[in-house]
Specification:
The complex is a heterodimer of chains A (415) and B (147). With 415 residues, chain A is an alpha/beta fold. Chain A folds into two domains: 3-32 and 306-413, Aspartate Aminotransferase, domain 1; 49-304, Type I PLP-dependent aspartate aminotransferase-like (Major domain) (Aspartate Aminotransferase, domain 2, 3-Layer(aba) Sandwich). Chain A contains 15 helices and 17 strands. Chain A has helices at residues 3-11, 14-19, 46-59, 69-89, 103-118, 137-146, 163-169, 192-201, 221-224, 249-254, 289-305, 307-326, 353-362, 375-381, 397-413; strands at residues 27-28, 31-32, 34-35, 97-100, 124-128, 149-153, 174-180, 205-209, 228-232, 243-247, 265-268, 273-275, 331-333, 343-348, 365-366, 368-370, 386-390. In chain A, the strands form five sheets. In chain A, strands 4-10-9-8-7-5-6 form a seven-stranded mixed sheet, with helices on both faces. Chain A has a four-stranded antiparallel sheet with strand order 13-14-17-16, covered by helices on one side. In chain A, strand 5, helix 6 and strand 6 (149-153) form a beta-alpha-beta unit. In chain A, helix 1 packs antiparallel against helix 12 (307-326), helix 4 crosses helix 11 (289-305) and helix 12 (307-326) packs parallel to helix 15. Chain A is globular and about 75 Å long. Chain A starts with a helix and ends with a helix. In chain A, 50% of the residues are buried. Chain B is an alpha+beta fold. Chain B has a single domain (2-137), classed as Sufe protein. Chain: A (Alpha-Beta Complex), CATH 3.90.1010.10. Chain B is 37% helix and 20% strand. In chain B, strands 3-2-1-4 form a four-stranded mixed sheet, with helices on one face. Chain B starts with 7 loop residues before the first helix and ends with a strand. The chains are: A alpha/beta (415), B alpha+beta (147). The interface between A and B is medium-sized, with 17 and 21 residues.
Amino acid sequence: MSTLSSEITAGFDVERVREDFPVLKQTVHGKPLVYLDSAATAQKPSCVVDAIRHFHEVDCANIHRGVHELSQRSTAAYEETRIKVKKFLNARSTQELIFVRGTTEGVNLVSSSWGRHNVKAGDEIVISAMEHHSNIVPWQMLCEETGAVLRVIPMNDRGELILEEYEKLLGPRTRMVAVAHVSNALGTINPVGQIIEMAHNAGALALIDGAQSAPHIHVDVQALDCDFYAFSGHKVCGPTGIGILFGKTELLNAMPPYQGGGDMIRTVTFAKTTYADLPYKFEAGTPNIAGGIGLGAALDYMTAIGLDKIAAYEHELLVYGTEKLLQIPGLRLIGTAREKAAVLSFVMEGIHPHDIGTVLDREGIAVRTGHHCAQPVMDWFNVPATTRASLAFYNTVGEIDALADGLRIVKEVFS
Amino acid sequence: MVDDLYQETILDHSKRPRNCHTMDDANRQAEGYNPLCGDKLKLFLRVENDIVQDVSFVGSGCAISTASASLMTESLRGKTRAEALALLDKFHDLLTTDSPVTKDLGKLVVFCGVREYPARVKCATLAWHTLKSALTADVPDPVVTTE
């Protein structure tokens, strides 16, 4: 073991953390599972699984409706998560926090509800060259509907946004700047504080896609001063199908409801419906109650370990992994930003990512191969796809060594 | 074992694909696209009197899709349209069912290992879906995707 790896182990008890994740204790194709696909979805600690089980076995009832004991318990547990999210993001109030299915729905809520009422023909929406499809397509749809124009902040060879070019894109017609905090395909951490400030100076709003930042970086929506911030529960070790949209109160109040139905109303007659106050105005229908409760448990878990500790440990893994992979001849990293989260996206000369992924899978190593829902990023780097190893705080240096060994086998197969 | 998938013939055809060029006198062509992995393929056919006289392809893809396209071009020459489409059905069965491997698939049997890798079936069938489109579409240059 190298000096670096022993230093890492000394500062962070990863073996103890791994005890919390039963899924990691298995073999795949006869080899110990090496899960390097956390940017797609993070694994779930036992406390999250237990919280969901407890809800279904003990407290199961619909929320906000019944006067009976179970309904009160489930409502309290679900709403408790909103309080936890308020702390997690440092929001001003729980009314700024809307439960959604995930980041994608959060972006769609804003593009639909805010967009249709505030964007007109000739207005401009600014996104970046490294966005996930979920922060491209909703804005494209809005532009098609309204006649607004989509502008794209370019990036450099390392996969960093070029802020001088961004400055030039901003103008009196800019209504919204929507960018990822962390790129899922490249790992780039964008300087969103500066990006938001520049948007505000131009009179525009700013939405941050937090899908890849919430699990890895301590996020403070007040310090960032973002207008909207969305993240997914399943990437912060919570369940799928639940996420959060943060929005500033005055903006959310001025926006029309996203969907109509139960729970989002105050009174309904056939002549007129009045809507509920925030945040319920945006939460039609019975929500993913179990998911919300599971998300609360996940945030407790992440907070107990500490986002700052997680970020520091993952950074060490990234440094170690980068060094290891660069020792492999013919391997090229895609995304070498100076500020980077623990994502190792790469291509290997003459070997297609899908073939790499299949060979690694037979070694028990789970990576993502493909365009990572970021086709414009692939086009920019002129590659059809990449192989992506994305790391989390439950990964070890030993697993990075296993990846490097697996890639040597890949080279043997296709030599 | 991963060697069951990447048999020698497949590796050979992926590194040195046969009939991998455009065709000036093609009278049918089609494009295939696998959005999942970004594989792209353009297929050229010269069909005369209902018989495939010549076939070639260009594109970029993984080892499985490239080898599949290469071996497909080798197995189509001289076949009638109906025979070519029948071969597609047999090839599809080879990849997706447990049915016994039939002799009339010839060299294509090297793809039998794909059965154990459901995620790779689309890679192996891209060229064949494109072939079907080229042989049956009403429009001159159809585009198919595996999604």
